Amino acid sequence: MQIFSVILSYLAILLWFYGIYLAFFSSLRRFFMQAAQVMWKRKYLWLLAFFAGLTAYGGEVNFFFRRLNTVTSLQGFLDGIRNAITSGRVDVFVDSTKNLWANHFGSMLGIIVTAVLITGVITWLIIMSQAAIVRIVGRSQMGKPTGLTDGLAASTEKFWTLVQLNIIGLLIGWALWVVLTAVPAAISLITQNPNWSFTAYLGSLASIASSVVTIFLIQFATADIVLHDTKLMPAIVDAWHLFSRNIVSTLEMAVAIFTVNLTLSYLIVAQLFFFLSAYTLAGFLTIVALIILLYTLLSAFSFSAWTIYYLKLAEGKTASKLGQWTNKLASFGGQKRSIQ
What we know:
Elements: H1 2-25, H2 28-41, H3 44-52, H4 60-66, H5 70-87, H6 89-103, H7 105-141, H8 148-157, H9 159-191, H10 194-228, H11 232-245, H12 247-275, H13 281-314, H14 321-339
């Protein structure tokens, strides 16, 4: 698996260079320029983007790289649970929890209710903000009247449909992860069989890929629901058809957005720490404020670019760069054979 990790590291570097090319030298550049224009013209999108980006903005590839070590982490977690059970620490924890609930029932119930409420509010803000951005950017690109009020009204109307959509996505993602990764990792830990460990590693890659596909489907289905008033299941079917017809170009868009976000984040944050002192309160607060602003701008940019890309994809006006290169090579090969 060490060789596998090295290969993936080199592939990540190549992917970064390819992402730079796609973002600045391919036809995707016009989508990014349109997204920048929209977010600059409608600055209230920045506030929405702050909440919308609490999950991950354009983070499909970022999600992939963050989860590559999931098997090792999972096996360590399971091994810790096994040791806790055999050493009796689990029994001590259960007894302590029972005593805590028995002696402080009101406080524990209050903490749980507060946590549930906070989670609900954050979830509401994320879904509402994402849907509002998609609505505003989409309708502005379609030449239809829109604004903050229209975006919030549409996201409110479609809120529960979008909640169901995200729940379906989560269930699919977790189910595939359990089957492909968690089960083989647990068997490997029990049997100490390295083959099962390698199977879990391959399964983690497969589950990550399937989760990335699920993210694309949720994005496309969200746009379909918010912009075209489509019902839940038809929107999911439409999203699948759209993605399956444009797999390569969609992946290219994700790579391009991720590369732009990663590159700008590293460059700007490095500049902040170089020119500002983080050891003073004023310097630290300035760095934090500028990083939050950067995160907000990148979030607004990413959601705007994805919405514009979805509209062009639905119109059939996008093509993958790899597909174009393949067609050129095929045409060149055909011409060469005809000359011979």
